[in-house]
Backbone:
């Protein structure tokens, strides 16, 4: 006859050891991460993301396999389906369209999304604090950003009367009341309050950019707001060169635009967003459910000014902006 207490002790030991063994098996096998991004993996930001994963101990060919899918927005649904068929352990989706395509392709595979707009309004999560499903991630969105950028331009150029807005109409959600449209509405409201004529110029593909910039210049805009988006980011050198050639000031969404020669930027800190995304992927790989990870919003925004570009444009940086700048590129 088996001693009852010994049996209870054995069952208890098994109950404790079983989860640990499962974690060990999960950690020892090769994890498969699916990536859905408009950028190819050879681009600088994707390469930084892969380096960050290596820093966390996830090494391709050792304990990590990466299924990278990139292409235009209209291809995202098919690419997301392909990742599901590849039986990935998690999906890293960049931008709203990627997150929406991934969430429609699977309700079980964890999805970590970056550069989101308003995931609650888009139906990706139940709430920011308690996502509740298989999607979580980080936003780079604030409806007030466009208005703040317009205020910065007006502070620098008090006589500014007309501003162009360069943006991608398909980079955000296509649902009614999308964050893209909300941000545009907020910027238009700020323009009315400041007495500035705001003109919108949409660009959906690289070939649209020169035509949109020409239209803005012919329309007599005194400055440009360039919305952050994968299209304007990858084509930033072309945009910045055009602005330099025609001596037009512009404000951008991220520091990288200014480092590339743009005049000034105001927006979220990309390195911080990337770091937090990688931490979320790490937690998912270690067993945390995405529905238990709150969707994070950027806590701070940075103002970056390129004084060399200002000089080339014949502009003097106001002392009030220099004092508030997080970084001045010389």
Residues:
């Amino acid at each position: 006859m088996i001693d009852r207490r010994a049996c209870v002790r054995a069952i208890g030991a098994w109950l404790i050891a079983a989860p640990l063994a499962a974690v060990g098996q999960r950690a020892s096998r090769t994890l498969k991460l699916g990536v859905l991004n408009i950028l190819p993996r050879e681009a600088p930001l994707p390469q930084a993301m892969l380096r960050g994963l290596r820093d966390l101990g996830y090494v391709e060919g050792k304990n990590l396999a990466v299924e990278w899918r990139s292409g235009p927005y209209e291809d995202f649904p098919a690419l997301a389906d392909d990742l599901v068929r590849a039986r990935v352990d998690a999906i890293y989706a960049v931008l709203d369209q990627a997150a929406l395509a991934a969430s429609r392709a699977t309700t079980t595979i964890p999805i970590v999304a970056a550069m989101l707009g308003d995931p609650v309004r888009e139906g990706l999560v139940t709430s920011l604090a308690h996502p509740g499903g298989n999607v979580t991630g980080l936003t780079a969105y604030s409806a007030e950003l466009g208005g703040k950028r317009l205020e910065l331009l007006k502070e620098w150029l008090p006589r500014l009367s007309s501003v162009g807005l360069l943006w991608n109409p398909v980079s955000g959600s296509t649902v009614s009341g999308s964050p893209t449209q909300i941000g545009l509405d907020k910027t238009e409201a700020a323009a009315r309050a400041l007495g500035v004529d705001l003109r919108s110029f949409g660009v959906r593909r690289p070939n649209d950019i020169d035509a949109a910039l020409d239209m803005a210049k012919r329309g007599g805009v005194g400055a440009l707001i360039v919305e952050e988006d994968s299209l304007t980011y990858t084509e930033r050198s072309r945009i910045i060169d055009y602005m330099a050639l025609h001596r037009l000031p512009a404000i951008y969404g991220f520091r990288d635009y200014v480092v590339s020669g743009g005049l000034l930027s105001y927006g979220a800190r990309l390195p911080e967003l990337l770091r937090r995304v990688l931490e979320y992927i790490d937690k998912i790989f270690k067993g945390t459910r995405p529905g238990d990870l709150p969707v994070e919003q950027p806590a701070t925004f940075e103002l970056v000014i390129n004084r060399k570009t200002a000089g080339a444009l014949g502009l003097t940086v106001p002392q009030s902006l220099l004092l508030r700048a997080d970084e001045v590129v010389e």
Q: What stands out?
A: Residues 149 and 266 are 7 Å apart (CA to CA).
